[in-house]
Amino acid sequence: MINELIKFIPTNLQSRSGKVFYSGKAAFSEYAPLYVLGVNPGGTPEEHANETVQSHTEMVLQSLPADWSAYRDESWKGNLPGKSGMQPRILHLFNVLGVSAGVVPASNLVFARSSRESTIVGDMFQMANECWRFHEKVLELLRPKVIVCLGGTAGDYVCAKVGATTQIEQFVEKNKRKWTSRLFSDASGTFVAVLSHPSIANWCAEASDPTGLVVRALQDTA
């Protein structure tokens, strides 16, 4: 399946600093109950100038292990693999679900890199539309029942695209911030979990852990 998917990566983004795949060939080669989508790759394009969308895709296809996961196996900012930023929080979700990071397909709404969502060069919405053909193909081939979106930007876009307009449940953080994560469903029974962004919210802390929404969505699809 992954060889079919790469045909849908926008050609105009191939030379940009960024990446498509946050998990390897195994995750994108068979039906999967879960699909994880961030907004776009982090880090500055200058620091990662040699990691283009095209070069990273070639690494995934040719040299990285089939069950590779960026959240578990990559070293971010010189830290131990899986120990930096939101990596432990994503791994916490996988641990709660009892799945290996290497079998969960993961990507980003937009494939071009920026240090922050607000500093991306170009029109985020336009690039999201260009990249959506890839995600649409993932949904067609892998048939995930739950799409986990990291933050509201990815979540709002995906909900609109798949028609997930019915809110099923929500989780409000048990702290002064009280950020809200929400679970939506479309007419066919596909769920979109719009979770607080793990780059800011600590999913590993009980008061701010929204992963129960994903657990219940998967239970409802069993």
UniProtKB/TrEMBL annotation:
InterPro entries: Uracil-DNA_glycosylase-like, Uracil-DNA_glycosylase-like_sf. Pfam families: UDG (PF03167). Residues 113-207 form the Uracil-DNA glycosylase-like domain. This is Uracil-DNA glycosylase-like domain-containing protein. It comes from Parahaliea aestuarii.
